[in-house]
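Recall that a protein's primary structure is simply its ordered list of amino acids. Everything else, from secondary elements to tertiary packing, is in principle encoded there. The following example makes that idea concrete.
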Amino acid sequence: MVILKRHKWPITISLLLIIIIGLITLYSVTVGSPDIIKARNQLIFVLVGLLIYFMVSFFNGNNLRYPLISLSIYMICIFGLVATLIWGVEIRGAKRWISIGEQFTLQFGEFMKIGTVVCVASLSAWMQEVKYNPKKKFLIFLWRIIKSPWLVSFVISLLPAILLALQPAYGTALLIMVSGLFIAFFSDKSKVRSLTVLSLCVLSSLTFFYFFSFLKGAGKIYISIITFSLFVLTLLFSMSRIKINWKTVIFSIFIGLLVAFLVRWNVLEKVLLSYHKERLAAFVGGEESAIEFQTRQSIVAIGSGQLFGRGFGQGTQTKLRYIPDYHTDFIFAAFAEEFGLIGSFLFLAVYLIFILLLIKESDLVEAGFPQVVVQGITALLIMQFAINLGVNLGLLPVIGVPLPFVSYGGSSLWTGLILIGIIQSFERKTKHIVEFAKIRGWK
C-alpha cells in the first residue's frame, strides 16, 4: 500500500492515455490489411511494457547513482550495439535490429538511451562528490578537467554515438549526444557559466567558419569582423560577470575550431549516406526527390483531415500508403488525417499535460542525482517529441525518430516506459521533510 501511495498516478494516467491513442491509431491505419498484425503486436508490447514499467517504478531509483550499477547497465547496452553490428538483421541498408523469432526484433539503440542517461548522471554526481587532493599542481589541474560533467558526458556519449552511426542510426545517435549534454548542463552547479561556455563555443564556431570562408573567397570579411567582435564582447562580458579562466576560453575556441572545420571542409558530406543527403537537400528546397515527395504527402495528409478528420479507418493517404512509415515516423500525420484538427489538439493537449507533469516532478524530487535524471529524461522525451512532430509538419529534415509511446515498436515503447518508471522510482523530498518534522515534534 505504501508503494501504491508513493506512485505518481497523474503521470501514469496521462501516459496510459497517450499509449491508448497510439494503439487506436495503429489499429485504425492497419484495419482491413495484412498489416493488422502490427496493431496486435503493439498490444503485446504494451502489456509487457506496462509490467516492466510498474516493476521499475517499485525499485529505489537512488541505487542507480552507484557507478558500478550504472556502468553495468551502460556496458550491457554497448554490448548489445556491438552484437547488432555483428549479428544484426539488415533492413533497407541499415543494421539496427537483432532478430528474435520470426516476427520480433530488438533494437539496442533505443535501450542505449537508458544506459547513457543513467551513466552520465551517475558518474557526474560521483565525480563531484569524490575528493582528491594531489600534491602537484599538474595533477590538480588534470583532476579538475576529468571531474567536469561536460567531459564525462562527451566521453560516455561518444562511444554509443559512433556505434549507432555505423549502423547507421544518426537520429538516435543525435538524441544520445544531445541528451548527454543536457544532463551535463543540469549537473553543472553554475548554469550561467554553462550557458556562457556554450555561447562562446557557438560564436567562436561562426568566427572560424566565416574566417575560413573568407580565405576561400571574397565578401566574407565584414561578417568575420562582426562575428569576431561579438565573440570578444561576449568573452569580456562573461569574464566580468562570472569567473571564467583561460582554460574555458581555450576550450571554447577549440570546440569552435573543430565545428568550423567539420562544416567548412564538408566532413559530414563524406560521412552521410546518399539518402541522408537527399533528406537534407529536400529540406532546404533542392531538387525533386522521393524524400521531398514523402514529406509533402505527410503535410497533405495532415491538411486533408481538416477540422474533424476523415473518420476512423478512412484515411486515404494512409490506406493507399502514400505516407511513408505511417506506423512509426509519420504516425502523427496518419492520426491527423483520420481525426482532424480537433483530434490533433486533444492529442497534443494530453501530451502537453504529460510533459508538464514530468517538469513539475523534477522540482519535487530530491536535489542532486534524482533531479538531474528526471530533468535529463524529460529533456530527452521533449526533444524526441519535437523532432518527430517537426518532421511530420515539414519543419525539419526527415530523421528516423519515433513518436514516444505512440509509434509502433517494442524497443522504443519499452525504453520510454523504463525511463518513466525510473522517474516514478524516486521519492519526493516532502516525505523527508515530514519525517524530520515528526522527529522534532513539529506539527
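The chain has one domain: 2-440. Strands lie at 89-91, 94-100, 104-106.
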